[in-house]
Amino acid sequence: MKLYKVSVVPIFTLLTLTTSFVLPLPDNLQAFLGVENEAPLNSPAQDEGFSRPSWFTSALMARRLLALSPSGVITTTFPDSLPPSAHAPSDVAGLSIGLREYIADCDSSLPKDLSHDDNGSPTILGLRIGTTFKNIASGSNLSLQLDWWDHLDEAGPVYPGLPLSPAALPRVTLFGYLDSLPSPLPDDAAAALEACFLGPHPDAKVWLPGASYSPHASFWARLVVTHVYWIGGFGDVQQIGWMNLTEWQGIRPYGSVAGVGDGRGWKDVRLPVKTSYITMRIARPRLRVSQGESAFAVGNARWTNLDLDPIAKERRKWGVSSLVAYWISDAFNAATWQFASSIIAVGLTYREALGIVALSFFIMSFVIAANGAVGAIYHVPFPVIARASWGFWGSYVAIISRVILAVFWFAIQNVNGGNAVRVMLGAIWPSYLTLSNTIPESQGITTNGMIGFFIFWLIQVPFLCMHPNKLRWLFTIKSILVPIAWIAILIWAFVSEKDGGGVFTAQPSTLPSSKYSWLFLANMTSVLGNYATLSVNQSDFSRYSRVSPRWQLLYIPMLPIVFTFISFIGIAASSAGQAHYNLPTIPWDPTVLISHWPNRACRFFGASSFALASLGVNISANSLSAANDFTALAPQYINIRRGQILCALLSWCLVPWKILESAGNFLTFMSAYAVFLGPIASIMLFDFWIVNRLGVVPNLPGLINSVNTGVDVGVGVHPFQFGWLLGFVATTVVYLFLSWVWPALETRIEHAVLPDEVYERGLGLDGVDELGLGEKHAVVEKV
Predict the structure, then answer these.
(1) Structural domain tally of the chain?
(2) What is the C-alpha to C-alpha distance for residues 16 and 728, in angstroms, rounded to an integer?
């Protein structure tokens, strides 16, 4: 490969510098002519509140200018001694000349062994007969000047008080040397490079290297940039001076390499086109996710992005108090209240209902704690951990299964929150409750209910745009206000009905023992299904933990106590409400109970506690879970924010008010919910903790019958009635047996790679030793 050694000149001194010009040393580059960056005192820009963009933003704009420039002025110098064949006046020897040449930012189109990794080295089609390339071949310095001046008629005013001016538009000069590409290029590389270059230059097809019809010999080359000089415009609103070469080389279209800038790519900025300086800095929405290059999958955005990467130490904000507040916040929601009440509604006593809730959450707490500890060690979400157990492609089974259910649960909480908003509005404007209904009764929702649903959905959208680390205050507020309100409701229940109502005096069930057992198991499955999603995705939240994974064990005593207490509140309030207001059925929906309260202020604040409860749990447990799954499915296009918005939009498509139309429907949904997640939780838990290395089919007949009772499946309905337990236990046995007989040794690596090893280059590692795993944890699977 032939190298042409060159140096170059800044554009603003183009006519005065010669080959004797010596570039300043790198550590002095920023200081060189740095006085130009000083904004004059009391300038119009300062009066208008303008401020210069950062140097990294300027580098992004410079790279965008390169990408959008089809040509540039290459400045070279004639040799000191001109041969007769030059046909040039002898006195131009040693003088500079600038000629416009075709260029394109096509380095990324080349194979890895030929490219410079899209580091800002423009591709040039050189003609050996051209003056520019003759001078370079003779040892000339060169510069490549790019500017935005041709777009003056498209640009809006970019400086206060002045008309349109080319001087206010950006330009950049690149210094370096010309590096010729191999000739001929491999066929695939040549085809890719030609396709990229001919896009902005279709006429250049005539001069392609090797073309038999080309009138002149040509060659491909790249300008390897060694220095960059930038003039963004007027000095008090734009940067002027030497750019950081590392930033220039580390910028990509959709992000930047790890450690460069703030992670943005050049497609996240705009050059002045029909807009003001202020609005040009606001990037238009783009389909691809804007972010830096992952430190854990360099060059491959197919499997990860920054939202899927392990959380860096400085971003781990959740301590013990945050974890406790989160779970108290999550537990106090309408679904937990409705569960115990709906169990009673299908024929069991309150003692049996509380026993089911306590036992279910005792079982679930072990699974949640075990899977949560994995997230606290590796600081990655559920979809990434699932790859260790299911493989990269197989993990899509678990991810898609969960994302469907997470979106369903988000939609259900929207109905709960919407009902609370409807009661709140009715407390303020009683006429709202008598609003004429224009929705068919068969749809399971009224006009005022739909309005409440929409308002609640709209209220939570801004929260979906916030990062989970910035929402701890919401969980803390909810963990304080909602328990106070619900304990007040419990006090009201026992004050209004001293014996607690009919539920507490009901006779034990007289069902035959076999039917009673299946009913008990069916309700237990429903309770397990209530938090089956968190049994697999606890790592979505524990990844933000800054404390030892041992703190996940706190859930084992805490969850059964908290959830059983909330269920007791629901039972007591529902029972008291039925007795106090002489209702024909138990008001298992808390908003139905609250709507009977005569005091409008009590109705408003009581309903607002349920609205806040639904808001908190929807954001923390449902939208974030779905967002992580959507992000894993398409990390190039979806991040956590986009995933949460997508979840919110899809919730409308699921008509969740049909699910909550009756207690039976709700229990059916929750049973179906657990069928799929039990096996997923089992595989993840035992793969990490025991195998370190499938069981759904028996439940399917019962699932079919629950969806369509007209399909008779005989005794096949019974396995479905304890679907989560059957799926979890059966999958555990089968998976452990298969892993013991046919261990997947090829999926293992020699030692665990913790995120801190990558972030800190091996300094200050923690996490594994906190669990006391020692050498047993030295072999893990590829994630």
Answers:
(1) 2
(2) 79
The answer to whether residues 262 and 407 belong to one domain is no
Question: Model confidence at 28, in pLDDT bands (50, 70, 90)?
Answer: very low
Q: According to the model, what pLDDT value does residue 660 have?
A: 67
Q: Are residues 321 and 384 in the same domain?
A: yes
Q: Which helix (H) or strand (E) holds 127?
A: strand 123-127
Secondary structure of residue 255 in the 3-state scheme: strand
Q: What is the pLDDT of residues 608-640, one digit of tens each?
A: 999 998 898 888 778 888 898 898 888 878 888
Which of 389-398, 473-482, 517-526, 754-763 has the lowest average pLDDT? Answer: 754-763
- pLDDT, residue 425, reads 94
Answering whether pTM is above 0.85, one says: no
Q: What is the pLDDT of residue 173?
A: 95
- Determine what percent of the chain is predicted with pLDDT higher than 90: 15
CATH at 380: 1.10.4160.10
Q: How far apart are CA 681 and CA 685, in angstroms?
A: 6
Residue found under tokens 């399909």? 711
Q: 762 in a domain, yes or no?
A: no
Compute the distance between CA of residue 81 and CA of residue 682 in angstroms, rounded to an integer: 81
**Residue 736, CB-side half-sphere exposure with 13 Å CA sphere:** 12
Domain of 111, CATH number, reads: 2.30.110.10
CA–CA gap between residue 375 and residue 6 (Å, rounded):
53
SS3 of residue 302 by DSSP: coil
Cis omega (within 30 of 0) for bond into 285 = no
- Using CA atoms, how far residue 668 sits from 358, 525, 526, 527, in Å, is 20, 10, 8, 11
Cα–Cα nearest to 536, from 360, 399, 638: 399
* Other beta carbons less than 10 A from residue 487's beta carbon: 12
Does residue 523 form part of some domain? yes
Question: Distance between CA 409 and CA 626 in Å, rounded?
Answer: 10
Full 3-state SS string of 451-479? HHHHHHHHHHHHHHCCCHHHCHHHHHHHH
Tokens found for residue 324: 């406790």
Pairwise CA distance, residues 611 & 491, whole Å = 20
Whether 331 has a pLDDT exceeding 90, the answer reads: no
- Summarize the confidence of residues 118-144 as an average pLDDT: 89
User: Does 714 fall in a domain?
Assistant: no
**What is the DSSP annotation of 547-610?**
S-GGGGGGHHHHHHHHHHHHHHHHHHHHHHHHHHTT-SS---SHHHHHTT-S-HHHHHHHHHHH
pLDDT one-digit tens code per residue, 71-80: 899 999 988 8
Residue 74 lies in a domain: yes
Determine the angle formed by the axes of helices 382-390 and 624-633, rounding to 10 degrees: 50
Instruction: Decide: helix, strand or coil at residue 748.
Output: strand
pLDDT one-digit tens code per residue, 704-722: 344 344 444 444 444 444 4
**Other residues' Cβ atoms within 10 Å of the Cβ of residue 561:** 14
Give dist(CA 403, CA 670) in Å, integer. 15
Measure the CA–CA gap between 555 and 373, rounded to whole angstroms: 11
Same domain for 235 and 344? no
Q: Which ranges of 29-186 would DSSP assign to H, the alpha helix?
A: 44-47, 55-68, 131-137
- Residue 592 in contact with residue 349, Cβ under 8 Å? no
Find the domain containing 261 and state its range.
3-11+40-280
Query: Does 44 lie in the same domain as 150?
Result: yes
Verify that 205 and 348 share a domain, yes or no: no
Residues 383 and 241 in one domain: no
Verify that 104 and 184 share a domain, yes or no.
yes
Residue for token pair 């010596």:
22
| Tokens matching residue 531 | 């938090």
**Three-class secondary structure of residue 111 per DSSP:** coil
Residues 336 and 268 reside in one and the same domain:
no
Rounded to 5 degrees, φ, ψ at 222 are -125, 145
The residue-averaged pLDDT of 582-600 equals: 85
**Residue 445 contacts residue 432 (beta carbons within 8 Å):** no
Cα(457)–Cα(56) distance, rounded to whole angstroms?
38
